[in-house]
Write a structure and sequence with these properties.
Strand order of the largest sheet: 3-8-4-5-6-7
Largest sheet: 6 strands, antiparallel
CATH architecture: Alpha-Beta Complex
Structural class: alpha+beta
Radius of gyration: 19 Å
CATH topology: endopeptidase fold (from Nostoc punctiforme)
Order of helices and strands: HHHHEEHEEEEEHE
Shape: globular
Distance between the termini: 44 Å
CATH class: Alpha Beta
Strand content: 15-25%
Helix content: 25-40%
Amino acid sequence: MNRRMLLLGALGAVAARWALAAPESLTPAQSRAVRAWMGHLISAQLSAGPSPRWRHRDCAGLVRFAVAEALREHDEKWRRANGMAGVPVPPEVRLEPAQQALRHRWRLADGTISAYAGALELIQENTRLEGRDCNVAGSGDLLFFDQGDAQHLMVWMGSFVAYHTGSESGADSGLRAVALGRLLRWSDTRWHPSAANPNFVGVYRFKFLSS
């Protein structure tokens, strides 16, 4: 066996190991279930307050929490602990073994994988741009704003957006839900989700979701 064949064999082995290690993208049915669960979970935070399971309370933390909880198994014990026993919930995602790592798997700018990623790395490394028109957004997609010295994420929930301000005090959880029409009329135009606003970068979708 010559050196070229040995090299090809080694590269093939590396590719095979990577294929086994890298989680698979979700199917259309799984993607629909994840979107539904993200909306359900974020709505629960808005109505009942932040879950103790949500530790990093900022805009990116809300996104990571919603993804991780959407991708887990929602058995009866989990439903009771989260106040969802006996109430309608979305269908289970039912991950395959190779997809299990998606729950806490975020790519960072240096190419490494971490359970933590900030707003900028969530966008740059883990999503794809869908456009700058909110009409292209689906439930669970992210609206990304770049204010120069800070970046901010909002989650598209259908007819409104949800986000965390990054701060909490007293009775204020930092969570907000704002109708799209109202957001487009805000006096601070930096937060208008429209192509006319240079601070609005666009609508982004997680790469693991089917289009």
